[in-house]
Amino acid sequence: MQTLVSAEEMRWCDATTIRKFGVPGLVLMEHAGRGVADDARRIIGLPTNSSVLIFCGKGNNGGDGLVAARHLYNAGYRVNVVFLNSPRQFSGDALTNFKMLDKLRSGARESLVFKSYSRSVLGRLPNPSIIIDAIFGTGFSGEVQRPARDVIDWINKQDVPVLAVDIPSGVDGTTGQAGHCAVRASHTATFGLLKTGLLCNDGQDRAGHVHLIDIGFPKSVSASASFKTFRVEEEDVRRALPQRTSTSNKYSVGKIFVLAGSRGFTGAAYLCSLAALRSGAGAVMLGTPESVYPILARRLTEVIVRPLPSTADGSIALGAYEEIREKSGWADCIVLGPGLSTNAETLQLVRMLIEKHAGKFVIDADALRVIGEIGLSRLARMKRQMILTPHSGEYARIIGQTSKMIDLKRIEMARKGGLLGKTTVVLKGGPTATGTKKGIVYLNSTGNPGMATVGSGDVLTGIIASLWAQGAGEEEAAYSGVFLHGLAGDLAAEAYGQRSIIAQDLIDHLPGALRRIEQR
After folding, report:
1. Cβ atoms of residues 207 and 170 within 8 Å
2. Which parts of 21-112 fold into alpha helices (H)?
3. E strand or H helix that includes residue 334
4. What rounded mean pLDDT belongs to the chain?
5. What is d(CA 213, CA 108) in angstroms, rounded to the nearest whole number?
6. What is the pTM for the complete model shown?
7. With CB atoms 3.0 to 4.6 Å apart as the test, which of 340, 385, 394, 410 could cross-link to 366 if both were Cys?
8. pLDDT under 50 in the chain at which residues?
């Protein structure tokens, strides 16, 4: 797992390192600025005929830029530094670094040039080999004001690499939100720990290639038990995947009962059931309305398909309860929701199953309406083993927030839902955030925009249920299922391009995703 921090947690890291461990802030700034300079050198190559343009704000982010300027000048590059504020506004460590750089400038006025910002200055700047954005840091929030707004607009129009210092200016370090103006970097050199704002909302599109630079935090700071947000990596999934023994049989490696489908929504039941099998489950039984049974029985030759009494609308009727309860007792994991419809009688049936059955449930799609009716607080008192898989619109009904707010603060919202409901919440999106009953959030690191296609969520539900039924822990099944789902999507994008991905492609590439993880 890779630790992720908010802007506030990053400030705590800086302050604790300085105050508790006695590491001077000047040392941290030196490591940061030197790391930026090293990244710039890797991006543009040898200093021959190479020039660097650095925009510096008045805070510590600008101080990091000043350190980078010093190292790049000493390495032989021509460096132009543009100050958005008067250098007299520097203070503390940034001021110290300004004074050092100013002394170097006295003997190198052509290779190390200072300029104060004005609109006319932007038109007279030499063509750089790289632009370094050291205007704002991770503490920025709100809207960018002039003159920074004019500078950022100018940066975004240049056809050269842009290296952001810690986070692209204009991007919120915690949420990743950018207002009307933010730097679009090709590279970001971030310090100490990875910020959540680089992975969420606008941040993930503005940051470009992100490189993490060690600036000297003590291990007890960077690995603090107070951090509760992590990014899932391939090795985490490899360790979580259930193992089969030589004596395994189809009933010992995961039995799943899927309650899904209705008239007009057979695809959801098909995709979920097939994804569960492709992910390694030994036996999958699908309970579906008798009105659509012939369609699904013909398509799902490897799935045990059971016809159930139907309502007039073609959804599962309340009269199917006893048969469902019996089949649910057979299963290691139960899936409720894909394509079930919003028929009132069907949703009453779902509620009865949730309230009266104590098995493992993966709840998706239409069944999530019932969770919204029950409420997270009551769900916690029921002490059910559940994994909820909502997108932001579905989650809005459950947690009582707008979908816009959920998308903006998806890490915080996933954490809140897990804690309130004492359950696992897989908040789908870009990226998917998995919140747990302990308040930990796992952010996914695979997947691509091409997976925003109908049926993709049904595939994810089947994968998660399959891993859980095979013996993975509740949290592990959730975040590993999300990772595999995203990896299958990445393989599909390699084969077809993002625009052409459909849900079936995700199932077709699941074997390749599993093989890649297991063989490495």
Report:
1. no
2. 25-44, 60-74, 92-105
3. strand 333-336
4. 95
5. 29
6. 0.94
7. 340
8. none
Q: For 55-108, what is each residue's pLDDT tens digit?
A: 999 999 999 999 999 999 999 999 999 999 998 899 999 999 999 999 888 777
CA nearest neighbour of 36 among 14, 52, 59: 52
Residue 187: how many CB atoms within 10 A of its CB?
21
Q: Contact, 183 vs 137, CB < 8 A? A: no
208 phi-psi bin (left φ>0, alpha ψ -120 to 50, beta other):
left
Contact 330, 466 (CB under 8 A): no
Q: Which two tokens stand for residue 369?
A: 């309406």
- State the CB neighbour count (10 A cutoff) for residue 203: 25
Cis peptide before 147 (omega within 30 of 0): yes
Q: Which helix (H) or strand (E) element contains residue 217?
A: none
- Other beta carbons within 10 Å of 500: 12
The C-alpha atoms of residue 85 and residue 65 are separated, in whole angstroms, by: 14
Longest dimension (CA), the chain: 89
For the chain, state the CA radius of gyration.
27
- Tokens 């509760």: give the residue: 228
Q: Please, which residues have CB within 8 angstroms of residue 258's CB and are 6 or more apart in sequence?
A: 269, 272, 273, 276, 284, 285, 286, 287, 334, 335, 338, 462, 465
Angle at 450 between CA 449 and CA 451, to 5 degrees: 90
Residues 6+ apart with CB under 8 A from 244: 253
Residue 316: DSSP 8-state: B
Ordered DSSP codes for 104-116: HHTT-TTTEEEEE
Edge-first strand order for the sheet with 424-427 is 194-195, 2-5, 229-231, 441-443, 433-435, 424-427, 385-388, 360-363, 333-336, 255-259, 283-289, 304-308
Q: Are 251 and 282 in contact (CB under 8 A)?
A: yes
Instruction: Tally Cβ neighbours within 10 Å of residue 48.
Output: 7
- What CA–CA distance (Å, rounded) separates 10 from 62? 17
Residue entry with tokens 């995700």: 506
Residue position matching structure tokens 């004019």? 150
Predicted confidence at residue 49, as pLDDT, reads 82
pLDDT given for residue 327 in this prediction: 87
